[in-house]
Amino acid sequence: MNTLKTILYMGFMHGLFTFYIPYQLASRDTPFANIGIFRFLAFPFWILGALIVIRCCVDIIRRGRGTPAFVDPPKELVIAGLYRYVRNPIYVGAMLFQVGFILWFGSALVIVYALFFFLGFNVLILIIEEPVLRNQFGAAYEEYCRNVPRWIPKIP
Three-class SS of residue 12? Predict the structure, then answer.
């Protein structure tokens, strides 16, 4: 059941905010720069971003026995997989996807959207997600926060 809930939640949330809205903005905007063949650098960002999101969802379902949705969070704290390096790898993956849109379309609107996207993630994390996880996992989550950075991956 968690798999279905995750597919529906992530399909809606990331389908809308990570893909549909930036695509609509970019396709209606005039490129601010023509970077030629370098636009194809978007593909590795899209692929890497999507793989990160998918991998993290699988970890949350399998290891956390829950979903990425804050209304149905994991039952166990997930600190394995990509969560060993950064506390918010799904959002990092979504931001990589935004970089792909910027490279592909060269849209100033997508750059502005990506900045608001990142700001929105921060608000969501600070006001909703971290308090929920602190309340649910207590000292274990506090220790995790001390050892793992929120945004910039800590590679051993």
Answer: helix
CB 52 within 8 A of CB 90: yes
> How many distinct structural domains can be found in the chain?
1
Establish if 152 belongs to a structural domain.
Answer: no
User: How far from each other are the two terminal CA atoms of the chain, in whole angstroms?
Assistant: 35
pLDDT at 33: 77
Query: 70 exposed, middle or buried (CB, 10 Å; 0-12, 13-18, 19+)?
Result: middle
Tell me the one-letter amino acid at 37: I
The pLDDT value recorded for residue 70 is: 76
Q: How far apart are CA 135 and CA 112, in angstroms?
A: 34
Q: Report the alpha-carbon distance of residue 3 to residue 7 in Å, rounded.
A: 6
Contacts (Cβ under 8 Å, ≥6 apart) of 27 = 105
What is the extent of the structural domain holding 104?
A: 2-147
